[in-house]
Design a protein that fits this description.
Layout lengths: L1 H15 L12 H7 L2 E15 L2 E15 L5 E7 L15 E8 L6 E3 L6 E3 L1 E2 L6 E2 L24 H12 L2
Parallel strand pairs: 3-5
Antiparallel strand pairs: 1-2, 1-4, 2-3, 4-5, 4-6, 7-8
Amino acid sequence: MRMITFGLSLFFLLLTLQPLSATSLIQSDEENVLQADLICAVKAEQEGHEKREGANLVIFTVSTLECFKGLARKTFEIELPNRSQTRGAPSLKIGQAAIVYLHHDEKSGLYRISNWIQGVVPLEQNSTTQTYQIPAKVVSRPKIPKNGNHQALAGPKLSDYRAFVAQFLKK
């Protein structure tokens, strides 16, 4: 009986916790696309730290490479939990390019990652063509069907990703 009571208490406690408005569940690609307010390929330009609401946050200024859902300014800020204090939190590094799934936080006016596990998809720049693509080795990358537009060893290009997102938004 104690185990059931403990289990129910833990369950209700977990329901009350909201890690910065982001889900930490693995979702389908369609759910990720539909739940995000903004999906963009960005490049991290500047990093700052802020303490608010008992949380230590990292604020990144990013430049927009391309948006797949929603509209973003040329540069804007993304709020991330401090990875050194929050295990499993998504992260960016200065100069890194990534596709980010974002939720607009009305209270702070900033964007937050909408899914901790799948909310930041790293990009790499092809040294020959200077185009960005999702590395083939990235575990969190969306399951984009191969359509012949990318090499077997390379990951999908942003044009493949654009079509991938569009299929969910048309429904």
